[in-house]
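Internal ticket #5521
Category: modeling
Description: The requester needs a full-assembly model to guide mutagenesis choices. All entity lines are attached below as received. Residue total reported by intake: 470.
Assigned to: D.W.
Attached entities:
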Amino acid sequence: MTAAAGYAPAVETVAEVAAAHAREADETATFPTEALAAMRRTGLLGLLVPAAEGGAGGTLTDLVDVTLALGRVDMSVAMVFAMHCQQVAAITAYGGEKLRADVLPAVARGERYLGSVTTEAGKGGHLLTAESALAQDGEMLRIDRAAPIVTGGPYADAFLITTRAPDAGSAARVDLVYAARDQVEVEVTGGWRPLGMRATHSVPMRLRGAVPQWQVIGEHGAFREIATTVFAPLAHVGWAAAWIGAAAGAYARVLRHARSEAGRRQFAPSSELVLLRLAGIRTRLDAAHALLRHTVSVVDDAADMSATPVQLLLNTLKIRAGEESFAAAHELVELTGLRHGYLTDSPLALERTFRDLRSASLNYADDRLRLANGALSLRDPGVRLA
Amino acid sequence: MNTEFTELLRPFLKFAGTDEITEESRLRDLGLDSMREIELLFAIEDTFGVSVPDDKLVDSTFATAGGLWGVVEDLRTPVGGGSR
C-alpha cells in the first residue's frame, strides 16, 4: 500500500464539493473557493508533499488519478489542483532545506495553496525567458513582476515566480523564486472573462516585494532545468489528466442519461448510428488515456528528462490529449443534440465541458509545441520512440 | 576553441553582443533556443565535416561553448589519436 493510498475519501469529498459548485463557479467566472477549502480540510493539497514533511508522499500516478477524478466534475478545479501540485513538486525537488521546512509541512496541513506566475507580457509565451528582473538589494531580492494570467492568483497563499536572475546577461537566464503572500504587495490589474475554464479565475496581477536569498528555488538561473525536469512534465501530464477527466465525466453523464428511461426513448440504443458514435468517443478517451499512462511510466523511469524522445512524448501528450478530449466533447454535443448538448441549463453540462476543453490547445499553445517537436524530431533521426 | 568555431556560434547567440565567447559561455543564457539549436547543428556539421551521432544530441551537449567544442573535437579526431 502506498503512502498516498489513503486519499480516496478526500478525493470523493473534494469531487462532491466541486460538483455542487461547478455550475455557479462557471456562470460567475469565480474561483472554486469551496473546492479549495475542501482540498485544505482533507489534506489533498499535500498529496505530493513527501511523507517526511507531513504529506501523503504521492507519486505522479497519484496526481493523475486525483486530477482525472476532479476533472470529471469540474475541469477548472482539476487544473487548479494539478498546477498547485506542480509548484509543490518543484519545491520538493529543488528547494533548499530551509524553504522545504518552511513550505512543505504547511502545504500538507492545508495552509498553503501555491500559485504559479510564469506568464509575462512581451515574451510571446516563451516559458524559458523572463523580462522583469530580480534585483539584489542588500540581503534581499527585490521582485516587481507583472503577469497577464495567474490561475487562482487572488486566492494563493504563496507564489512561485519566474524572473530574470539578478546577474543575468540575458532574458534567458531565469530564476524561480518563492514568495509568501505577506512578502509581496498583490495588485489585481484586470478581470477574467474567458469562454471556458472560467473557474480557474486566471486574472492579470502585479506582484511587488522582496524575499531573502534562500527563497530562490535551485540556484540562480536554475529555472531551465526545473522546467525540463518538473514544470513541463507535470504541466503536460496534469493538464492531460484534467482534460481527459473532463471528457470522461461528460461521456459518463451522457451514457447514464442514455440508459435512463427517458434517455432510452430519445436515444434508441439499438440504433447503429448511436452505437458507432458511442464507440468512436470511447476510442478517443481510451487512446488519450493510454498515452497519458504511458507517458507517466516513461517519466517515472527516465534517467534524463531532457532526452529528446522524452521531450517529444511529453509535448505529444499535451497536444493529443487536448485534441482527443475536445473532439470527444464535440461529438457528445452532436450525439445528444440541441436540448441536451447545447443548452446551458442541461444537467449533462456538455456545453460547459465543450467550452472548457476548447482552451486545451491554447494553454501553452499547441502550435508552439508543434514547432518545438519539429526541431526535436530533427535531433532524433533514429526515431527512438519513448 | 578556434576562431572559426566561436564566429560560427556568434549569430546563434542573440544576447552575446560583442562579448568574447569563452569555453564557459552558457549558450542558452546567451540566447540559443531549441529552434536555433538544430540550425547550429547543421552549421557545425557542414563547417567541420562531422556528423554528430544521435546519442550526443542531448541538452547537455549544447550547454556551454566549451562542451560543444569538445564534442566537435572528439568527432574530428580519429580513434587512435592524432588530429586531422
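Resolution: model delivered.
Comment from assignee: The radius of gyration of chain B is 12 Å.
Ticket closed.
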